[in-house]
Amino acid sequence: MAEENEKTPAPTAKQLASARRFVADHGKPAKGVVENIGRAGARVVLVGADGALGDVIVPAPATGEALVEAVEGLELAEWDAATVNAVKIGAEHRHRMAGPAGRR
């Protein structure tokens, strides 16, 4: 277990650039939902103003929150009705999520 006095890693330049590029490509305001994924850290699910989905993996939930805070046009969100309804999943995304078995 991590000690309480350990510092939470700050988001890297690459993680920040990825989130900023997503916001630039998919519009403001974008939403960032931080999801704890255990030992792997956290996933920041990005929802663009146009309904597009993206994500950034970070080492800890607090890092994800710091990433959202650092990116202009990105606001911290939860999977509430407004966020879920903002997502527009197109055919390309559904096809990609289906994996190789869904690409017949």
Quick overview of this protein structure:
This protein has 104 residues and is α+β, with helices and mostly antiparallel strands. It has four helices and four strands; from the N terminus they run H-E-E-E-H-E-H-H.
Please characterize this protein's 3D structure:
- There is one protein chain.
- This protein has 4 helices and 4 strands, in the order αβββαβαα.
- It is an alpha+beta fold and 104 residues long.
- 37% of the residues lie in helices and 22% in strands.
- The N terminus is likely disordered.
- The chain has a 4-stranded mixed β-sheet with strand order 3-2-1-4, with helices on one face.
- The protein has one domain.
- 22% of the residues are buried.
- Strand 1 and strand 2 form a beta hairpin.
Topology:
Layout: H1 13-26, E1 30-36, E2 42-47, E3 53-58, H2 61-70, E4 74-77, H3 81-86, H4 91-98
Parallel strand pairs: 1-4
Antiparallel strand pairs: 1-2, 2-3
- Count the domains: 1
Q: Averaging pLDDT over every residue, what do you get?
A: 89
Measured by DSSP, the beta-strand proportion falls in: 15-25%
Distance between the termini: 45 Å
Low-confidence stretches: 1-5
Spatial shape:
globular
Radius of gyration: 15 Å
- Tell me the total number of β-strands: 4
The SS-based structural class is alpha+beta
Characterize the quaternary organization of these chains: single chain
Count of helix runs = 4
Largest sheet: 4 strands, mixed
Series of secondary-structure elements, N-terminal to C-terminal:
HEEEHEHH
**Into which percent range does the helicity of residues fall?**
25-40%
Strand order of the largest sheet: 3-2-1-4
